[in-house]
Sequence to fold (117 residues):
Amino acid sequence: MSSAYVIARLRKGPLHADLAEYIERIPGTFEPFGGRFLVHVTPHEVLEGSWDEDVVMIGFPGVEEARAWWESPAYQEIAPLRTRHLDGDIILIRGVPEGYDATKTAAGLRGMLKGQE
Fold:
């Protein structure tokens, strides 16, 4: 089983008491699903392109746990505290499995490219 991650790219907005409440309450919503903050609005350095938004990343044991957290009544109850004040994009993504080898992915890509010649 691969780990899973919920990644949020949040546009900066005005401060509001709802956001403080959301931040206080969110850890309690993902802990029952094995989730934890990996990144939480920490300073970042743009290496390529542009990225002015804040980043939040929560790790989970798997996609099922991440989806269960997102759909949970506990999280859905507090989500409006954020969505009323901040716009952003949020994705759920699988991590690579243990022992992932990128060279095998490259070999498959080379095979597909060979068929296009």
